[in-house]
């Protein structure tokens, strides 16, 4: 069977969407389908902290103070990860960039590495609220879990409800923070020919199909514009 157009091309992908939009699930699927790593900023921050790298030590101090990790630290951690050999064919970035300076830094990192595809996942607020109420994670490693999961697919840990997701005020605040922080990012990317928006309210398999079609379309657009 022949691969679909663009399937063998380098895929540098970022996914933008509010908490509960399903970015993590879809990022895992696309990374597997395209044979590229899914890079979660939460995962690489924890790894840097555990390994005691210079950036990890800076991040640890910030986290222990209860502050948000600064742009320069986050940019440094992501840059180190993108320099590894497994990203030569591309990557799926989950959780980065979150600010315009981070987006500008990512453009510099990708100079000469092929086009950046930006996917915005749109989900209505009522659906997000329903999903976050039911969302579950691994008690040990924090990986998101499907509703039917009883053990973590990554580490085998116990699956539990996210306590903070059950608080309506917390959910509302998270969505408000996302809206405020993300609008400048969307404004930064929206006019690019590789920017796509998909409906994230659909069933996961339909979202995956829409995401695949959007990526292939963006790759074709990037190829034809060279």
The 3D shape can be described as: globular
Strand order of the biggest β-sheet: 2-3-1-4-8
Largest sheet: 5 strands, parallel
CATH H level, superfamily name: P-loop containing nucleotide triphosphate hydrolases
How helix-rich are the residues, as a percent range? 40-55%
Mean pLDDT: 84
Radius of gyration: 17 Å
- Structural class, by secondary structure, is alpha/beta
Number of domains: 1
Indicate the CATH architecture.
3-Layer(aba) Sandwich
The helix/strand order is EHEHHHEHEHEEEHEH
Strand content: 15-25%
Total beta strand runs:
8
User: For this structure, what is the CATH class?
Assistant: Alpha Beta
How far is it from the N-terminal to the C-terminal residue, by CA?
28 Å
Question: Which segments are poorly predicted (pLDDT under 50) over 5 or more consecutive residues?
Answer: 1-6
CATH topology: Rossmann fold
Number of helices: 8
What does this structure look like?
This protein is α/β, with parallel strands linked by helices. It has a single domain (11-224), classed as Rossmann fold (3-Layer(aba) Sandwich), CATH 3.40.50. The protein is built from 8 helices and 8 strands. The strands form 2 sheets. It has a 5-stranded parallel β-sheet with strand order 2-3-1-4-8, sandwiched between helices. It has a 3-stranded antiparallel β-sheet with strand order 6-5-7, with no helix packed on it. The radius of gyration is 17 Å and the shape is globular. The two termini are 28 Å apart.
């Amino acid at each position: 069977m022949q691969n679909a157009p663009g399937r063998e091309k380098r895929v540098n992908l970022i996914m933008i969407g509010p908490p509960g939009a399903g970015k993590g699930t879809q990022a895992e699927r696309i990374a597997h389908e395209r044979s590229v790593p899914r890079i979660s900023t939460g995962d690489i921050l924890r790894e840097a902290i555990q390994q005691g790298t210079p950036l990890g030590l800076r991040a640890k101090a910030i986290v222990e103070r209860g502050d948000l990790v600064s742009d320069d630290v986050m940019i440094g951690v992501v840059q180190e990860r993108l320099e590894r050999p497994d990203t030569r064919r591309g990557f799926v970035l989950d959780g980065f960039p979150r600010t315009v300076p981070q987006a500008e830094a990512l453009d510099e990192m990708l100079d000469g590495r092929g086009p950046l595809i930006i996917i915005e996942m749109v989900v209505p607020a009522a659906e997000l609220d329903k999903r976050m109420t039911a969302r579950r994670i691994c008690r040990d490693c924090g990986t998101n879990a499907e509703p039917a999961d009883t053990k973590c697919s990554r580490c085998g840990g116990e699956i539990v409800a996210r306590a903070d997701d059950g608080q309506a005020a917390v959910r509302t605040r998270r969505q408000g923070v996302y809206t405020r922080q993300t609008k400048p990012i969307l404004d930064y990317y929206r006019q690019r020919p590789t920017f796509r928006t998909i409906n994230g309210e659909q069933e996961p398999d339909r979202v995956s199909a829409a995401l695949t079609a959007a990526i292939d379309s963006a790759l074709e657009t990037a190829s034809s514009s060279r």
